[in-house]
Amino acid sequence: MYKLETREANLFYGAKQALKGISMGIDANAITAFIGPSGCGKSTLLRCFNRMNDLIDNTSITGSFLLDTEDIYRDVDVYQLRKRIGMVFQKPNPFPKSIFENVAYGLRINGEKNKTLIADKVESSLKSAALWTELEGNLKRSALSLSGGQQQRLCIARALATEPTVLLMDEPASALDPIATAKIEELILELKNKVTVVIVTHNMQQAARISDKTAFFYLGELIEYDETKKIFTNPDKEQTQNYITGRFG
User: Fold this and answer.
1) What's the predicted TM-score (pTM) here?
2) Distance between CA atoms of 36 and 216, rounded to whole angstroms?
3) CATH number of residue 169's parent domain
4) CB neighbours (10 Å) of residue 32?
5) Residue range of the domain that includes 212
6) Rounded Cα–Cα distance for residues 10 and 32 (Å)
7) Separation between Cα atoms, residue 31 and residue 8, nearest integer Å
8) DSSP secondary structure letter of residue 29
């Protein structure tokens, strides 16, 4: 059984078709990378999994998107869905609050009032995001005072606080320097023991380093999807070969 699955999924922005008949299954507790040139549909597909595209006017979707065999668009309340599927964006987006309140935010809006439980969840989430040893004792500091890499790890901690089973990451290291990027990659590799990770990346070396499976998209279509090692060393499709060797894209 797949953790996430799409069956003949299509998405339209008005008359423009952005996703074309996507069918794929994403394994639990694995890292799946989406690669492809800009505008190929990889971020659009990622956002379908927690219904972020609902926020865009004139969007229509056909086919099925499944989480643990439940249809995301028919059988799951969107509020509950976003507790089960966390999201981390390209640029760190901490709230203008303390470090503690950034991580506690999701718990509070879900109605949690137990201060001890909130404090425990904040600590465990910061530990999971490899931030606790750096920030312990400074949790009242503004999150905006952190470095870019720390801010991104804080956003990961915030996403983890509600205990999602899936973490969607849209180019989470593209705005970071190489050292911060390496820390994020290390963190992602550790996280797959707890959650299913789907990452969109323009950095093919990153996809090759950290993902178990890789999906290559082009012009809204899924061209090839396989074990990462196979995609990068022996792809079946010429388009995939051309992309990963830099002949286009």
Assistant:
1) 0.94
2) 5
3) 3.40.50.300
4) 23
5) 4-244
6) 20
7) 22
8) T
